[in-house]
Amino acid sequence: MDLSDLQFWAFLAAAIPVLFLRVVIVWWKGRPIVPIALLSLMFWPSALILTLRLRRR
């Protein structure tokens, strides 16, 4: 993996705010954030792994 790859950093720049956006929306509505935060943290790494695998093909 080449860390200077612009597409990789663009993906991270878009994915990280989206991860926290869901938590902020749920917090703003006054609902418990723990379930959403756990689901986001569970599925975000798998999306990152999938992206890295598809990039290699």
Describe the structure.
- The chain is mainly alpha-helical.
- It has one domain.
- Helix content is 81%, strand content 0%.
- The protein is built from two helices and no strands.
- It has helices at residues 6-28, 34-56.
- Helix 1 (6-28) runs antiparallel to helix 2 (34-56).
- The protein is elongated, with a radius of gyration of 14 Å.
- It starts with 5 loop residues before the first helix and ends with a helix.
- The relative contact order is 0.13.
- How much helix, percentage-wise, in residues? over 70%
Cα shape? elongated
Q: Report the portion of residues in β strands.
A: under 5%
> Count the strands?
0
Name the structural class: mainly alpha
- Termini separation comes to 13 Å
**SSE sequence, one letter per element:** HH
Low-confidence stretches: none
Radius of gyration: 14 Å
Q: Specify the number of helices.
A: 2
Estimate nothing, just give the exact number of structural domains: 1
Largest sheet: none
* Mean pLDDT value: 76
Keywords: Membrane, Transmembrane, Transmembrane helix
Transmembrane segments: 7-27, 33-52
